[in-house]
Give the backbone structure.
Amino acid sequence: MTVTKRRRGVLGTLLTPGAIWIVLLYIVPSLLIVVYSFLTKKLGGGVIWEVSLDSYTKLFGYNPGALILNDFVIIFLRTFWWGILTVLTCLFIGYPLAFYVTQQKPATRNLLLLLIIIPFWTNFLVRIYAWKFLLGNNGFINSTILSGLGLRRIPLINTPFAVLIGLIYGALPFMVLPLYASMERFNYSFVEAAQDLGAGYFRVFTRIFFPLTIPGVATGCILVFILAIGDFVVPTVLGGGKVAMVANLLSLQFGNAFDWPFGSAIGVVFILLLMIGIVYYILSEIRKEA
Amino acid sequence: MQTENSEYAPRRSRRLTSRFVRWANRALSLNMVLSFLFLYLPILILVVFSFNDSRLAARWEGFTLDWYRSLLTSRSILSSAKNTLIVAVTSTIIATGLGTMTAIAMERFRFPFRRIYDGLLYIPIVTPEIVTGVSLLAFFSLTFNAINSAFHLTGDSAFRSGLITITLTHVAFNIAFVSVVVRSSLKDFRRSLEDAAQDLGANEWVTFRRITLPLIMPGIIAGALLAFTLSLDNFVITYFVTGPGATTLPIEVFGRVRRSISPEINAISTIMLIISSIFVLASQILQRRK
């Protein structure tokens, strides 16, 4: 197709406004954060335009009172560890769930899919509040179930348990939908062929079904991981700031602590780790296929 | 409950095999039931207790509509609901227009650096919201400080974050989401219809108006509905780009949720859940019609 002058004009008109909008509000601010992370903190928020590596030494350096790792590194490690736990749990529940859905008649299947999609769209904050209502000290479990049974109240909220439940709850649909999409495309004549050749269920699953649904597994895992480690609502509402994740640390630096360069450094390192993780994952997938 | 690989099925024994299948099916059903209980029971309890006649604890004391009544007279709820609607309507209109234009450019034109644009459009979808939020906070603050000091603006005439910054930001991420939905509807229909129109003498504009646009209309409306709900529900990014006096509903709810549980939050949550569910259903029906 030859690109005539008029066609080029049309293309420019179509493409430019959206591109400028995203560049201005996504790319430029990200670059700004990179710059800020090398500047000096200004009391009360903002930066002083003097180059400094303080933020990075604060993040990775020795901090008195800590044994081996400083608090910030511990929060990073905790966040990534919980991200992995969330991914594994969602996969463990979501894989058989997606499989169950693919096995149903079209009408049932559509209904179940809709029930999985609805949480996708409904307000996340509200759904996490639902868990605070269940787990809170005056919440449903303590006030209705435990005191109904004559048991003592137990602290459920503001624990790692509450945060993990919230993360899994929020992320589960994001695991199931890509899994479902890859299973729906699966060609069942492969199963028959394998069974004719004498393969049992275990072999059919490990050698045929699972390998062919790996694209869905990968998409689901990446989505869930990004969602879980970046979550701000869950650790704030269900963790009460007592079990902080990276998002709390970020919000604190730009809020009460007012150390923007340090907050920026946290953001930069966080995004870099995320990108390295995803790139590494994709590369290892490619290597496996090769 | 990973059923498929948890038991070794012998290769030839028919009886054992059918027992395995029955057992596996039962485990799959159980996993499905538990998953849906996990997804919906918290929401159900939340809704039920929005009618509970007790302010203090989550123990059932009787039916009341008081909490809904008190929402209608709460000035902070009403004004934040108004702000939310203004932002959602404005950002949906702009983002649907720009997102559709971008989608058409991406699907119907060939141009250099198309892959880069492709990546650009996914940035708002994959960047953790917390990172976007804090970097936009830094970006707007820097921009407004520069403008205000250049033009000596102070007090009420000075630029500051508020409904406008919230709207600008919602447009940015919604362009990405709308363009994904519209692109999939552009991919779906047969290009031969466009070719036929042009063979019959219609120029590109007429072809677009008479053929392409009507065919992708369900996709555009589905994208607009998605944009509208995403804007209504957005909390994390909004939290960081808002300014004094510009409170949206999710921010108002967050402020209350952070403090404690209360039946009023249950009531406002119920209303928000119902509104989003209506939008999901509408969008699903539209997308299924194609």
